[in-house]
Predict the structure.
Amino acid sequence: MRFDNQTALITGASSGIGDAFARDFARRGADLIIVARRKDRLEALAEEIRSHHDVTVTVIAADLSTPNAAAALAETIGVKDIDILVNNAGFGNIGLVADEDPAPLSEEITLNVLALTQLTNIFLPPMVSRNRGTIINVASTAAFQPIPNMAIYAATKAYVLSFTEALWGELQGTRVKALALCPGGTATEFFDVAGGRVAGGALAPIGDVITSTFRALGKKKTPPSVVVGRLNATMTNIQRFVPRKTIVRATARIFTGGN
């Protein structure tokens, strides 16, 4: 797939999946607007991309977990300029809800849910008007079940999955694509930030996430969501036939605190 003469806005682009999306969209010809809190990392990424691809890269340092950040970002870059929106910014904390500090809890919900929703709402209308565009909202396999010790993160990703699939339904009959991307544990900084680990199992390479995304987007009929990895897809399907209490007890053993 090529995206020449298109502009991709990618949030959370300073590392991990966002970084990988920036590199791949640039390889496919898209100009970039990359957003994250860490300006130094964004600048380094932009310089590297410019040295390898004939695209423009605009760096915007912004904390989307703050109130009105989405509107401020849209005002900075202009709503009509965006052809592709990748809502990747987000984080999770591993721990009990009773032990959560109120401020990080609010920031997690604001970033994972509110900012994603507001950015979608802001940049979607011009896409619909020109009957072309792509929205990729990064959910997670955590969206498919409650997860004790990561209750808030799983709940926010369940929202992202439901919201994006509903959006996909609203966009039927147009050429605007909406895709909820659901990776499992991936080799990024996520668990370093979250303050914990996954019990057992290896983390998947970031390349699998990117490959699954473009495979889904390249289909004649883009699906509303895609689960990264055959095993993850199988597990999310099996859960429909397993008692809910069994699932909750099992997931409680997967995500643990400590390193």
Q: What stands out?
A: The beta strands are 7-11, 31-36, 57-61, 84-87, 133-138, 176-182, 196-198, 225-227, 255-257. The mean pLDDT is 91. The chain has one domain: 7-257.
